């Protein structure tokens, strides 16, 4: 939009280093290699792999990559400046970073005088020497150097002249990139812009043609992405961040938002457009490997990022998507979702049917019947937003296309607690092909007992149920204010090891609600395995 | 920092309206009332309560508030402009908003020509009439009007002159606030700033002294907070957003980040500083009521927002917190967490004890013991944020001040479903003053049966339990990924008709978890009625 057409912005990913500082993330070498390959496929030009001096595991990561190199990305090793009062050549940390064998290294140094005197407990002069000598030594060993100016913005605000001297030291020693780091994440976009502008003006002539600038931001003020953009608008050419914004405390600048903002809205070139379409899948892959639930609210790549509710709204978005969507979801590999909600209008239902590959027309009486049924069920407390498998079963039922796979006769559940023991047992009765089956099972709670009993009852007729298992279980009390007499809505997610689908049950009795959801989960799983059927995958 | 000292920014919360559009959030009237009271305690001046015309449930919310009004906040009813081709006085939606009986109403209208012709399918002139006549009619009925200019930024970019005409119509009809809405969330901060500046310059003289401007942003570009700040820096005086940033798609501007940025960094006045210290607790309360896991990475209020790892770093942060923290965590009611250290917990426990009026000192061995117990229970899945009655019982237990009111021997619960019937029966055995009591009851679910049986068993010895009832019941699966074998945390709120208190139970068995929470609810209720005791009210 702003016509900065085609200017290149170099994306520098630090998911494997700064990202893995996040609480709750712990990546094995194998995990790191898999993520590095995905980032390479996405077309990220710089991938920071780790800090070999601080983390011995990281050395192996670089060695493994030497055997099976990436296609095009530069893998970068990260390290601090040498220790105070030592020669660079004698610092074991720098030997480790050299042994990583990368062409590029990133060295971070102190910009803020207070961190030099209080943190490192050395002199301001020694810090300048540490920056200069470390970079000069690595250059003499054939490395290309990116210099990360730690605590840049705070340092500049407290002692501007000293902060600039640290950059001078890095330039003189031969750093090719200077990266402004908002390490504590406290700076707001207008301050980022002002400081970047002032410093780049001041250094402009000193570094020569080849000197370039970068930005590294943290999300403590919830402005990390805006801060990166503000710096780019001032002329910075490298953006450092992480996939999904993972990182220490509140995380780093989220590349999944920074990249599409820069490329799709401001016309910068970050990634090949075809590769940008892998962004959503890369985000979900990284959260999968990091073993964190993907954030459904995440901008651009989240499950809800292009979800639409409400009747008029839905027909409008279908006529002209730009009226309700800031970008085309396909540009980042995401897609539009029509959410089935209380206000479900006819157009919602039709759009949903199309998603499932079900042929349904507006004038079809079935459509009105379905809408009626849907409203009744929503009044009873059903919600199909997150239970698309149940919605498809309902749709098939109204259309007369829901085969009777089994007939339920009932269940009994028994929970017992006495001194030092708890029990949960369940018995179910099911009729399949005219035969009555009675089975019982126990579990560590009434719901797992019920699930086990149901699968035991069905497995003889449908051996595939032995592959099914529950992958998620959620409970919502619909009107909390009536206490335990309130209705309960249970959402169950099932899997056959490959796909996942979600179902819903509602009852004043939590066991009964769970039972309904589990039964529909089994039924949907069996239906979707009939080879001739076209069924939707919800995960 | 920037010296805009003490200029007032009016915070407008729309958690109850726009926030509840988020996927997965469904608030009962009782939930909405509880949230409204918390926002009022926080000192939010405008609280948008709902859209009475679109959602009949919302009308009851406003009626309930008439009976028990808030202390100081203005509750605002929300509505669109009248329908095309109708008189304002004949539009039933506007009758609904009037029946809400609020002093302030917010009317949203179309700014973007495309939405008028394609969405509303009416003429550009009629849209101007709809805006003007709706506002004029509501003014004539004694209401004060905030005008939300929907799709403002997109509309302005596409047809600047028409967009400004819509504002002119609102001004002429008597709107006191004009709010620029970035409805699709696609605009970046520098564009927000530029457009706000241009429009306010252009309208400056037209509205007179009393006309004020506001900003309403969405997070689709991950810049909602930065966008709100950019508008404020241009002179806007109202910020609309939601607690925790909940809202449709990627959410609204997160007030939990916008407020501390504006107040602590830019020197604007949003809330009383003492009330700002309730921000973290309000955030967690709202996520609890919304039944969503609080985001530990959330800026300012998240559990990880001020978490520090590593030795040197930790001693540095303790010597001089400003070197590693962008604000003081206490300013927003959060606290520094030193990961793998007891320090943080200790002060928490002491603060908690002080809250309950319990005299506990740092060097008291009880304090260390309590901390140990607390950590064990948190590892098992207990959480006391929203269950302060259970926390107080735990504290009394460690201090040897938890009297044995009754002893539980066990329970049996039986659920049955057959053709056309469901049953839920519970039997409990309790010992009181040496006597064994066995009682049974039925309910419309296993938990209400259990609750009834327990009260039946205790009522002879403690007649007051007949006044007790459950007012809320919430279930959270702690580790969703292990399906129905995961642990369940149950939160129960009890009342004696005057006060309310909350308790917690954890088990892999949902019935057992409910049982623990109900039992503690009864125990706490009996304890708090001993006249000599000072006990805390949690709701």
Describe this structure in words.
2 copies of one chain form a homodimer. Chain A is an alpha/beta fold and 539 residues long. Chain A has 3 domains: 10-289, Aldolase class I (TIM Barrel, Alpha-Beta Barrel); 307-398, no CATH class; 407-527, Alpha-isopropylmalate synthase LeuA, regulatory domain (Double Stranded RNA Binding Domain). Helix content of chain A is 39%, strand content 20%. Chain A is built from 18 helices and 16 strands. Chain A has helices at residues 29-42, 56-67, 92-99, 113-120, 124-140, 152-158, 160-173, 189-203, 224-233, 255-265, 273-276, 279-289, 311-319, 346-355, 365-380, 388-398, 446-458, 510-527; strands at 10-13, 46-50, 74-80, 104-110, 144-150, 177-182, 212-217, 238-241, 307-308, 337-338, 407-418, 421-432, 435-442, 469-477, 488-495, 500-507. An 8-stranded parallel beta barrel of chain A has the order 1-2-3-4-5-6-7-8, surrounded by 9 helices. The first copy, chain A, has a 3-stranded antiparallel sheet with strand order 11-12-13. In chain A, helix 1 (29-42) packs across helix 2 (56-67). The two termini of chain A are 34 Å apart. The relative contact order of chain A is 0.07. Residues 531-539 of chain A have low confidence and may be disordered. Strand 11 of chain A pairs antiparallel with strand 11 (407-418) of chain B.
């Amino acid at each position: 939009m702003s016509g900065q057409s085609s200017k290149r912005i170099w994306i520098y990913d630090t998911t494997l280093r700064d990202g893995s500082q996040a609480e709750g993330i712990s990546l094995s070498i194998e995990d790191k290699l898999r993520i590095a390959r995905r980032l390479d496929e996405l077309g990220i030009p710089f991938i920071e792999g780790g800090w070999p001096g601080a983390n011995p595991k990281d050395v192996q990561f670089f060695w493994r990559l030497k055997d099976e190199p990436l296609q095009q990305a530069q893998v970068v090793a990260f390290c601090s400046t040498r220790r105070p009062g030592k020669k660079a050549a004698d610092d074991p940390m720098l030997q480790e970073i050299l042994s990583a064998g990368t062409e590029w290294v990133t060295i971070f140094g102190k910009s803020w005088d207070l961190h030099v005197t209080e943190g490192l407990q050395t002199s301001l002069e020694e810090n300048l020497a540490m920056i200069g000598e470390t970079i000069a030594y690595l250059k003499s060993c054939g490395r290309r150097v990116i210099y990360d100016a730690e605590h840049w913005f705070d340092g500049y605000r407290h002692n501007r002249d000293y902060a600039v001297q640290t950059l001078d030291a890095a330039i003189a020693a031969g750093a090719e990139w200077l990266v402004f780091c908002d390490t504590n994440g406290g700076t707001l976009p207008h301050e980022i812009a002002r400081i970047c502008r002032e410093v780049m003006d001041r250094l402009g002539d000193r570094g020569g043609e080849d000197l370039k600038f970068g930005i590294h931001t943290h999300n403590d003020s919830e402005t990390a992405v805006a801060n990166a953009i503000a710096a780019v608008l001032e002329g910075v050419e490298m953006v450092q961040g992480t996939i999904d914004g993972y990182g220490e405390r509140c995380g780093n600048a989220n590349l999944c938002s920074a990249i599409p903002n820069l490329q799709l809205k401001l016309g910068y070139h970050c990634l090949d457009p075809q590769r940008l379409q892998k962004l959503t899948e890369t985000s979900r892959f990284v959260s999968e490997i990091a073993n964190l639930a993907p954030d459904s609210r995440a901008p651009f790549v989240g499950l809800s990022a292009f979800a639409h509710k409400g009747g008029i709204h839905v027909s409008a978005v279908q006529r002209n998507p730009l009226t309700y969507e800031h970008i085309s979801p396909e540009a980042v590999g995401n897609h539009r979702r029509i959410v089935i909600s209380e206000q479900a209008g006819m157009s919602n239902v039709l759009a949903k049917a199309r998603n499932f590959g079900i042929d349904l027309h507006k004038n079809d009486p079935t459509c009105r019947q379905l809408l009626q049924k849907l409203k009744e069920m929503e009044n009873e407390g059903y919600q199909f937003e997150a239970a698309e498998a149940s919605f498809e079963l309902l749709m098939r039922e109204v259309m007369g296309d829901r085969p009777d796979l089994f007939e339920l006769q009932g269940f009994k559940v028994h929970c017992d607690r006495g001194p030092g023991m708890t029990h949960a047992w369940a018995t179910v009765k099911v009729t399949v092909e005219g035969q009555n089956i009675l089975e019982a099972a126990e579990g560590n709670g009434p719901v797992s007992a019920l699930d086990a009993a149901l699968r035991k009852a069905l497995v003889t007729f449908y051996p595939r149920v032995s592959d099914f298992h529950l992958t998620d279980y959620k409970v919502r009390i619909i009107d909390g204010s009536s206490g335990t007499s309130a209705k309960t809505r249970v959402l169950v997610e099932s899997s056959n090891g490959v796909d996942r689908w979600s179902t819903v049950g509602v009852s004043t009795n939590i066991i009964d609600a769970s039972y309904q959801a589990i039964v529909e989960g089994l039924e949907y799983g069996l239906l979707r395995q009939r080879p001739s059927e076209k069924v939707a995958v919800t995960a």
